[in-house]
Each structure stands twice: as C-alpha cells, then as structure tokens.
C-alpha cells in the first residue's frame, strides 16, 4: 500500500474504495459543491448509529474526483465545523485531508470527516431533527422510532466498557493478525490497530481492553464471559418433554470467542440437519435438498451472536431442533428501533464494534439484505415464513421445515409416472404447478393462482390436463370452491 492513497484513521478506506464502492452504513461520499449545512443530517445519522466517514470531494453522482481546492479553504473549514455548528451536542469526530489527483489531472485533496458513534446521548441537528444511518440511507426518526432510540441511548454499550482483568496476551494472536490483514494494516502494531478501532481505552492513565475486544479475540473467552456460548439441543418429536419422558437426543455446548463461535456452531449445526426429497422443475425428477436453506439458519445464528445482549449474565444463545422446526433464541430484546414488524427493512446494531468486525470478516452484510434473504430463501424452498418473537427478554427465530408435506413417500411411483417423455409434454406453467405440489400435501386453485400469478381459468385448464395424465388428483367435487389437489 506504499503508493496507494488511504485513510490513516481507517486503512480500509482506500481511494479506490471511496470512489467505487457502494455507499453503506459506514461510508458516504459527497461533492464539495454541497452546502456545508446540508451535511448536518448525515453527521447526526452516523453519530446515532455505528459511526462512519463522510468523504467530501468525490461526486456522489458521477463518482469523479472533484477535490476541494476549487471551492477554497474557507468552505473546507465550514465542512470541518459542521459537527460543531450543525449538531447538538457535538459528536466526537476527526477531520483528515488526503492528497489526490483530481479528474482534471491537478493536485488536489479530499476531506474526510470521521464521525464517532455517540454512546449515551442523542445527536440532533440544530433544528432539533434526529437522524439514523440504516444501511445506505439516512433516515429521520419520529414518533416511536425516536422514542426507542432515546431509550437505547440512555445506557452505555456493554461492549465499550473496559475489562480490567484481560491483558493483550490473553488475545488470540492468529485472529488479531487475520483482522489486521482484513484492514490492510499488517504493517501497524497490534496495539495501534486496536486503539484505532476503540478496542483499547485509557482510564486513569492506564490502557485497558474493552469487553468487545475480549469477546471477539480472547483465547479463552469463558474465563471472562462464561455466557459467550451457543447451546444446541435436539429433541425427538415436536415438543420438549420432561421427567421420565425426557426426549433430548443431543445436547452440545460450544464455547469460544465470537469469531470462532460462528464457525464452530455452523459446522456442528450443519452436521445435525437432515435432507429431504423435492421435485426438480428442470428435470421432473426428485432431488435431495437440505432440511432448511443454509443461508436462512446461518444468518439467523449470525444475527443472534452479533446482536445479543452480552451484559445479561448467565444467559446464552440456545438453538433448539425439533422434528418440524428449528428455533434460535438469543438474550436481549430486539435492539433500538428494530421491531418484529419492521425487522425485514430496519437494521440497528446493539453491538456496533462487534458488528463492524464481523462485517470485516464477511459474516455480517453492510446493507440490510440478510433478514430479507431469510424470508426469500424460505419461500424458494416452499417453506413457511420465518417467525420472529420476543419472549422473556429474548429474541426467538423459528424456521419450519414442513416435514410432513416435504417427505414425499410416493416418489418412486411418481418417478414412474413422470417419465422424461411425459415431462417433455408439459408446458412451463404445468411444471411450475407440479414443483409447488411436490412440496405440499394439498393445495387449492386459489393458492396456485397466487403462487403463479395466473388467472383461475388458466390454472383450471392446466390442473385438468395434469389430472388426465394421472399425475395429480382432485379432492372433492369439481364444483366445490374448497376443492384441493395433490400428487397421486
């Protein structure tokens, strides 16, 4: 990186990244043409979320490097003063100038404003508006959303508090080196890197590791936080029994630092999941598919580990497997403005330092695509929507596998019926109908209309053709509006 332009505060912010990368929850670019006062909402948004960097001098429309020199040093100073003059209270921040060559081939500079997260107070603009960075958007908060943010900011993040017992040598050197490599900071001393990411704090003249640093990198995390673990319990049946009827057939506890915990839990849970058969729409043959789409359960696990309340002593993440469902339960209510109703579209990190490291390692996505994809992948597998709830100061995710509907017991007979010759006679809509039926016990015509987005008469014609080929059968009178269809 010797000849490369990059931020000394965050080596991850190279010139190439700042010019080409999509804006995200940690980064935004602005042309220096903008009025300095127009940056106030963005400063407020970053401060109220997980912090972030505003890059001034790159067009957010053309991505050209315009620089700041043509607008004069007075305007640059106005930009620098915006966190102080445009927000209340003033968030902690640092300004940084980077030497660049602008799009005209002239020597120029970019101005970077590194906004630090506000731990225990709300940062508003001078007109009393409050903003929050959510994904790549800056959202003004009002009503319940604003009230929830105020509740959240009333206490300090547990991850930012210091740990007076842990020492630098208690951290996993190999993991630290991996982290430095992710940041393109292998040339920097470990202590400097950890300080730059606020994993080391000074108190009363002494440097201490934070809780986040120990949770993420400790060699023996249970020495400091025995609740940093995932417990997996598998039951025989669809409910948990007690006493003489106790039906636990697997009970495994995984204890390690957060970065290793995800991978260890992923490998173990993967070994416990089963496989089913499903109809392949391309061939008309049955194929083996996993019990749940991998992304759905893994993203649920990653979210639990990332966003749980680590300050709740004695509580751990519990993954429970039943015959018909998988449950992931993590300590602490949904963080900040996230609710069961808006969880697909709203993101907020209870543990921003931890979340950011997991983003650097590729576990956590910067945009709010993870939860949305849990829903879409479950739908692609013809499974019920995931269910989120908040029981007893915890967050629970339930994934259902529809075991009865998906465990097709007549697949050999169907393979004799659905020969390649028969399959080639079917049109694309009929194949789509059979693929859906292959994962359901029974369906109605209206259900198929909704799934295929086709008119009732069109669906009826295809169903009648499939009945004539002896592939499916009708349950009930053909004139009964509640009639159902199923594979023969």
TrEMBL record:
<dbReference type="InterPro" id="IPR007421">
    <property type="entry name" value="Schlafen_AlbA_2_dom"/>
</dbReference>
<feature type="domain" description="Schlafen AlbA-2">
    <location>
        <begin position="23"/>
        <end position="141"/>
    </location>
</feature>
<dbReference type="InterPro" id="IPR038475">
    <property type="entry name" value="RecG_C_sf"/>
</dbReference>
<dbReference type="InterPro" id="IPR036388">
    <property type="entry name" value="WH-like_DNA-bd_sf"/>
</dbReference>
<dbReference type="InterPro" id="IPR036390">
    <property type="entry name" value="WH_DNA-bd_sf"/>
</dbReference>
<protein>
    <submittedName>
        <fullName>DNA binding domain-containing protein</fullName>
    </submittedName>
</protein>
<dbReference type="Pfam" id="PF13749">
    <property type="entry name" value="HATPase_c_4"/>
</dbReference>
<dbReference type="Pfam" id="PF04326">
    <property type="entry name" value="SLFN_AlbA_2"/>
</dbReference>
<dbReference type="InterPro" id="IPR038461">
    <property type="entry name" value="Schlafen_AlbA_2_dom_sf"/>
</dbReference>
């Amino acid at each position: 990186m010797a000849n490369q332009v990059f931020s000394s505060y965050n080596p991850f912010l190279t010139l190439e990244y700042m010019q080409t990368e999509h804006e995200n929850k940690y980064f935004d670019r602005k042309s220096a043409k903008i009025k300095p006062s127009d940056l106030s909402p963005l400063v407020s948004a970053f401060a109220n979320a997980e912090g972030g960097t505003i890059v001034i001098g790159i067009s957010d429309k053309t991505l050209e490097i315009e620089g700041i020199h043509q607008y004069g040093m007075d305007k640059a100073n106005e930009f620098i003063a915006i966190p102080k003059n445009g927000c209340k209270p003033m968030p902690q921040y640092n300004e940084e100038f980077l030497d660049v060559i602008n799009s005209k081939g002239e020597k120029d500079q970019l101005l970077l404003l590194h906004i630090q997260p506000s731990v225990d107070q709300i940062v508003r603009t001078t007109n009393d508006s409050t903003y929050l960075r959510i994904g790549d958007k800056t959202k003004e908060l009002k009503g319940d959303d604003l009230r929830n943010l105020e509740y959240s900011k009333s206490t300090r993040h547990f991850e930012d508090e210091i740990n007076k017992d842990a020492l630098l040598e208690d951290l996993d050197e190999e993991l630290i080196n991996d982290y430095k490599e992710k940041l393109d900071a292998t040339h920097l001393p470990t202590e400097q890197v950890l300080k730059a990411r606020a994993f080391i704090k000074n108190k009363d003249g002494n440097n201490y590791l934070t809780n986040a640093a120990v949770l993420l990198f400790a060699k023996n995390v249970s020495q400091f936080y025995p609740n940093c673990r995932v417990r997996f319990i598998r039951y025989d049946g669809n409910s948990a029994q007690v006493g003489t009827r106790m039906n636990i057939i697997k009970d495994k506890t995984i204890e390690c630092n957060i970065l290793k915990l995800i991978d260890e839990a992923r490998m173990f849970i993967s070994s416990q999941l089963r496989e089913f058969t499903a109809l392949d729409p391309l061939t008309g043959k049955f194929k083996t598919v996993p019990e749940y789409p991998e992304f759905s359960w893994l993203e649920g696990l990653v979210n639990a580990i990332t966003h749980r309340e680590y300050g709740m002593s004695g509580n751990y993440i519990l993954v429970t497997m039943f015959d018909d469902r998988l449950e992931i339960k993590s300590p602490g209510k949904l963080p900040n403005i996230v609710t069961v109703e808006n969880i697909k579209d709203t993101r907020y990190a209870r543990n921003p330092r931890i979340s950011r490291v997991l983003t650097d390692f590729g576990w956590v996505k910067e945009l709010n695509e993870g939860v949305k994809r849990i829903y879409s992948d479950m739908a692609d597998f013809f499974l019920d929507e995931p269910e989120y709830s908040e029981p007893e100061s915890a967050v629970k995710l339930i994934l259902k596998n529809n075991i009865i509907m998906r465990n097709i017991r007549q697949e050999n007979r169907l393979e004799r019926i659905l020969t390649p010759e028969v399959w080639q006679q079917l049109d694309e809509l009929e194949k789509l109908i059979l693929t859906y039926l292959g994962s359901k016990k029974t369906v109605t015509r209206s259900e198929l209309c909704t799934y295929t987005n086709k008119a009732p008469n069109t669906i009826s014609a295809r169903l009648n053709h499939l009945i004539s080929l002896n592939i499916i059968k009708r349950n009930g009178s053909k004139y009964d509006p509640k009639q159902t269809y199923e594979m023969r």
